Amino acid sequence: MFSPEGPSLRELAVQALSSVEHGYDLLAPKFDHTPFRTPDAVLEAVASALRRIGPFEAGLDLCCGTGAGLDVLAQVCRRSVTGVDFSAGMLEVARERTRPAGRQVSWVRADARALPFGPAFDLVVSFGAFGHFLPRELPGLFAQVHSVLRPGGSFAFPVLAPPRPTSRAYWMLLGFDAVMRVRNAVWRPPFVMYYRAFRLSDVRGDLERTGFEVDLHTLPEFGRRRDGSPRVRMVVARRLS
Predict the structure, then answer these.
(1) I need a labelling partner for 106 at 20 to 30 A (CA). Which of 6, 69, 126, 227 fits?
(2) Can you say how many angstroms the Cα of residue 108 is from the centroid of all Cα atoms in its chain?
(3) Longest dimension (CA), the chain
(4) What is the mean pLDDT of residues 4-14?
(5) First to last CA, the chain
(6) Contact call for residues 225 and 52 (beta carbons, < 8 A)
(7) How far is CA 133 from CA 60, 98, 194, in A?
(8) Is the pLDDT at 2 greater than 60, yes or no?
(9) What are the record keywords, sorted (predicted)?
(10) What are the structural domains, with CATH classification, of the chain?
């Protein structure tokens, strides 16, 4: 599951018993060697899809982590790219490893639920961060994204089809969520990381109520399931006004 350069079981245990912020500060130096980092194939497919929609001028990577999404923004944004995250450790690694050529690059430490920007961006992307927000927090998060986009700007992120109940992945995720809920019931501070709480139908409704027009784009690189549905989609939510 982890490469030799990844964290040890002891390091993961210490992270899991920390707050989300401190846990990611600890994990940051080895984060890119874990399965938690968005795979390059997903990043490349999103970049390809965004190139068909763009170009854009200024882009923001929401909950940027170690900066993998900045490479996507650098391919589709002509002027500037910004990464925002509340983990100082993640931002430190991102600054060292990510230097998109020919673009103005900024790194900002902030909570995504209280973004310190005005309507300055044409594109906001996010990769793998939504499991750190409870479902009741998502409308507020989407309102923050809406507020930093210029009219006509887009909020884009990939969504994987949920695993079937007959699959091993389904039971692994169910077990992980159950363990996290027990951990949070008996230990403080909480570590919010629930992989099964982000449901596309609910998310689409929250986005539309926030004032977005929502489109779903199939990412053909990942094929389709037996029932014909896409394995991976990209959500593109456009700010109307």
Answers:
(1) 6
(2) 16
(3) 49
(4) 65
(5) 44
(6) no
(7) 19, 26, 8
(8) no
(9) Methyltransferase, Transferase
(10) 1-36 (no CATH), 38-162+199-239 (3.40.50.150)
Contact call for residues 234 and 217 (beta carbons, < 8 A) = yes
Model pLDDT for residues 148-198, shown as the tens digit of each residue: 999 999 999 999 988 788 888 777 777 777 877 888 788 788 777 777 768
Q: Give which of 187, 122, 191 is closest to 156, Cα–Cα.
A: 122
d(CA 156, CA 216): 10
How far apart, in whole angstroms, are the C-alpha atoms of residue 211 and residue 12? 39
Q: Which helix (H) or strand (E) holds 37?
A: none
pLDDT tens per residue, range 93-147: 998 887 776 689 999 999 999 999 999 999 999 998 898 888 899 999 999 999 9
Distance CA 111, CA 24 (A): 14
DSSP code of 3?
Answer: -
Number of CB atoms found within 10 A of residue 60's CB: 30
Amino acid letter, residue 80: S
For the CA atoms of the chain, what is the radius of gyration?
A: 17
CB distance 87 to 25 below 8 Å: yes
For the segment 82-88, the average pLDDT, to the nearest whole number, is: 94
